[in-house]
Amino acid sequence: MTTQIPEPDPMTNVEVGMRVVDSEDEELGTVAExxxxxPEAITAEGQRSPRGMTExxxxxxxxxxxxxHPQLEGRLLRTGYIKIDAKGLFxxxxxxxxxxxxxxxxxxxxxxxxxxxxxxxx
Length: 122
Hints:
The protein is of the alpha+beta class. Helices cover 16% and strands 29% of the residues. The protein has a single domain (11-41, 51-120), classed as SH3 type barrels, CATH 2.30.30.240.
């Protein structure tokens, strides 16, 4: 009898600064943030990191992460995501959910989807 060993979660190998490439070999930018989620959570309650006074002040000016439509925010907080600092001066940053990561290797993060399937920052 053979036992299937589950593949490790690719998120555990993602690091800030890694290069990100989509499924069509387009280089999108670099990882700006990594957020692990709890896929068994029913709601996003408690998924945000505790915040200190400094973070509250910064967030009042910059907003909190993930900076997406509220309906998508809950899903990203529950499942986890990476924020991609998109290439280009006026490029909109993007979010990729854990399930959209194909694999991670020394060359960076390879996504399982094209750019158009990612969630843009609002």
